[in-house]
What does this fold into?
Amino acid sequence: MWDNCGMARSQQSLEKALSDIPPLREEFEKDLRVLGSAETLNQSLEKAGRVTDFFELAELLVRDALHREESCGGHFRVEHQTEDGEALRDDEHFAYAAAWEHRADGDPVLHKEPLEFKYVHLAQRSYK
Amino acid sequence: MSEDALHITVNVWRQANPDEAGRMVTYDVPNLNPDMSFLEMLDVLNDRLLIDGEEPIAFEHDCREGICGSCGMMINGQAHGPERGTATCQLHMRKFRDGDVINVEPFRAAAFPVVKDLVVNRSALDRIVEAGGYITVTPGSAQDANLTLVPKPVADAAFDAAACIQCGACVAACPNGAGQLFASAKVSHLNLLPQGQPERYSRVEAMVDTMEEYFGSCTNHAECEAACPKSISIDYIALMNRDYLKAKIKNRRLASQVP
It folds into this structure.
């Protein structure tokens, strides 16, 4: 995630992350030692559950970053930058919050929640 | 490992669940860095237990910098160990000597049933907070910050009480398993401030009454103050008792209008 879905990400790096995560996740699920039982408090099981969640979240994060073909806030796609190297948004196509629906079987489904600005309108911020 | 590495033995309380009997189990823990915290020593031991196929020792921890109140255990019979004014996470192995045998047990109190190993259920403390640990404010825009002035000594006293991290060491250290230091800290940090005045007397009555449902009685041993990782003074118990006495008069039916 640090290398391929970090502060600067590209289509290439994100696709690599998306192909790297499932084998890691499979290895974690198959080669895992959790001692104790599920009947009592089990801190090892809690930790294992958290790591499983992180795998799921990581994959979704990469999927969303790959889908969002613009740079915006902490999401900097190297393909989308101004001449000065600043984030280049694409408000025409991506002015929405992406809500991904979990599907037990298959890929998550994207629901778009449009961002509407009534009083303060979208503009390009410049720190220069 | 460096020359000053510690080699210690720990006797740890192992208890599978609240219903089964527990027992002390001895573990040899060599090659410890003296700069480790006590919890890191347990981490190292747990890593080895995991490899050996023995279930790791359950203990609570979160911030590991003495502010969350999660960790807490009896170390050689003392809540949070021998160091004054620190939580277990802030106790370092350099406070022990090579070859030491250290007894590690959960907090012991009737109000704190053991969940597993060193983990106890401290919900009884939450019951006290629920009973009165709140203030009433009018919603809407916040008032000017300087409208309600608080004298510095009062603000300091309230802050010292608010330093309580709800770890329960005071209860574990008390021979009676009393919750007075905890309850008094929670009562006082609100009762001292102007914002806490509307519920001042109903708060102290509700919190003390709830405390007495779960905890033992205070007999002024002051072990709580000695064990408190935030060194909260038993002066707050006096403050709470004074307010409680007043509340018993003020909260009486028909007498509530008497100033």
Summary: The interface with chain B takes residues 33, 35-36, 39-44 of chain A (CB under 8 Å). Helices of chain A lie at 11-30, 43-67, 91-94.
